[in-house]
Write a structure and sequence with these properties.
The complex is a heterodimer of chains A (159) and B (291). Chain A has 159 residues and is an alpha+beta fold. Chain A contains 5 helices and 5 strands, in the order ββαβββαααα. Chain B has a 5-stranded antiparallel beta sheet with strand order 4-5-10-6-7. In chain B, strands 11-12-13-14 form a 4-stranded antiparallel beta sheet, with helices on both faces. Classes of the chains: A alpha+beta (159), B alpha+beta (291). At the A-B interface, strand 4 and helix 3 of A face helix 2 and helix 5 of B. The structure holds flavin-adenine dinucleotide and FE2/S2 (inorganic) cluster (2 copies).
């Protein structure tokens, strides 16, 4: 057992955990932040567990929680501010960027990071950015649209 | 829980401390963890059951890209950093080609050049590119002894390298390239940016008139792992990268390469990929050869 200090969505958590605990299990089982999903078993290919580690999109099933000791994690629960959804979240709702919603938290986390680094992406760039997230429902068309429209909204409100 | 019990997790801040932690265990019982993008799969499936994990994330000496004598890339340098480094042009551009298309952006935010080469997965991109560019692996042992092992000797075969259990990979180095040189890498996989069914890396050196004086071709995705392919050298050297010469070179490589069928692709399909990708990659390498 090891005691770790991990900042999650701005709050510092000090927890004693076994070294083998995956970061995604720490978030879901210890902190009850069940917005981060588990879609695949051990391959790390579905992206449903995507979170931000120090502001970068990573797969939380491909890390141990002890590796996040001393770092800052953001999960989908941390995207809304004062009960208000982020621009990207609103865009997903408006443009039907989800059906069952299982993949959505991971896609939101990946695309939030993506848009911060690619403020004016082409559809092709958005599709490239989505390679690490599987969606079995939508066929991606509305996801791409939701990301594209969010980028426009962000650009128009930025300056 | 997926992973088996892990007794100890340590996060040293120096290479010496990491090697000392490793030396406290029997060979193979302690494992270094870099980006975890291969090792975590193995740990979750219990194919690997380390008693101790030595996390290299806090060792700054293992990170970064330097151009002091040729090129030196720290083992803990991530794909995202290699893909985004515009100084990796000409002779070294193939490294960016490969890094930019490994897996997906989440994987590239964690995975490292050192982890990829130490794992040496049968179908992986970086080992073939380091081999193709004639790289050298800088290893350091717990005793402090250092050795530089050429890629051709380091990359023994799938999941096998010349690294000894008491050694850590510090960096991957490339000798300075004299004159005009260009390189490129491209792969074809079942999904966009997936593991290569076939990948081709080409590096060419040109004289002042644009005539090729040296060529290096390596392949990824074949059953023997990353490998050099020399059968096209005769057609490439002396050419200016004319389409006919490139076609001849990669026809020779496709005919002579040890190509095997698997559930992903037949032998003939892989040979066709070598011909098509190869000519395209070589044309890019010629075009990138800068003064
Ligand atoms: C979804 C997905 C898609 C992928 N797609 C591709 C792809 O298209 N092409 C491709 O090439 N790869 C692909 N990969 C594999 C990826 O490249 C891995 O990141 C890489 O193989 C391992 O690097 P790592 O830093 O994550 O190493 P780790 O997984 O942390 O370590 C791998 C091995 O190297 C050892 N090790 C690490 N660093 C050192 C060191 N400095 N000294 C000694 N030993 C060390 C570890 O002990 C371990 O045995 C993919 C992986 C995933 C999950
Ligand atoms: S659960 Fe599928 S990538 Fe993490
Ligand atoms: S909305 Fe169902 S998996 Fe994407």
């Amino acid at each position: 057992m090891q005691t770790v200090k991990i900042t999650v969505n701005g709050a510092l958590y000090e927890e004693t955990i076994p070294a083998r605990m995956l970061l995604v299990d720490f978030l879901r089982d210890r902190l009850a932040l069940t917005g981060t999903h588990v879609g695949c078993t051990h391959e790390g290919v579905c992206g449903a567990c995507t979170i931000h580690l120090d502001g970068e999109a990573v797969k939380s099933c491909m890390m141990l929680a002890v590796q996040a000791d001393g770092h800052a994690v953001t999960t989908v629960e941390g995207l809304a501010r004062n009960q208000e959804l982020s621009v990207l979240q609103k865009s997903f709702r408006e443009h039907h960027g989800l059906q069952c919603g299982f993949c959505t938290p991971g896609i939101l986390m990946n695309m939030t990071d993506f848009l911060a680094r690619h403020p004016n992406p082409s559809d092709e760039e958005i599709r490239q950015g989505l390679i690490g997230n599987l969606c079995r429902c939508t066929g991606y068309v509305h996801i791409v649209k939701a990301v594209r429209e969010a980028s426009k909204t962000l650009a128009s409100t930025a300056g | 829980m997926f992973p088996a019990h892990i007794e100890e997790y340590v996060r040293p801040t120096s290479v010496a401390d990491a090697l000392a932690a490793n030396a406290r265990y029997e060979d193979g019982e302690a494992m270094f963890i870099a980006g975890g993008q291969s090792l975590m799969q193995a740990i979750k499936s219990r194919m690997a059951r380390p008693r101790c994990l030595i996390d290299l994330q806090a060792i700054e000496a293992l990170k970064g890209i330097g151009f002091e004598q040729g090129l030196r890339i720290g083992a803990m340098t991530r794909y995202v950093e290699i893909a985004g480094d515009e100084r990796l042009r000409g002779a070294y551009a193939a490294l960016r080609d490969a890094a930019a298309h490994v897996g997906d952006r989440q994987v590239r935010n964690r995975g490292t050049i050192g982890g990829s080469c130490c794992w040496n997965y049968v179908a992986s991109c970086t080992p073939a590119v380091v081999l193709g560019l004639g790289g050298t692996f800088n290893l350091v042992a717990a005793s402090g002894a250092r050795r530089a092992v050429p890629a051709s000797e380091f990359l023994i075969g799938p999941l096998e390298t010349a690294r000894r259990p008491d050694e850590m990979l510090e960096s991957v180095a490339f000798a300075p390239v004299a004159g005009r040189a260009g390189s490129a890498y491209r792969k074809w996989g079942l999904l966009k940016d997936a593991l290569p069914v076939v990948g081709v890396c080409v590096q060419v050196t040109l004289d002042a008139a644009g005539v090729c004086t040296a060529a290096r071709v390596s392949l990824s995705g074949l059953s023997a792992g990353a490998q050099m392919a020399t059968a096209g050298d005769a057609a490439l050297v002396g050419s200016k990268g004319e389409p006919a010469a490139l076609e001849r070179a990669f026809a020779a490589i496709a005919d002579s390469a040890d190509v095997q069928a698997d559930k992903w692709a037949s032998e003939a399909y892989r040979q066709q990929l070598i011909r098509t990708l190869g000519a395209d990659v070589a044309a890019t390498a010629f075009a990138r050869a800068v003064v």
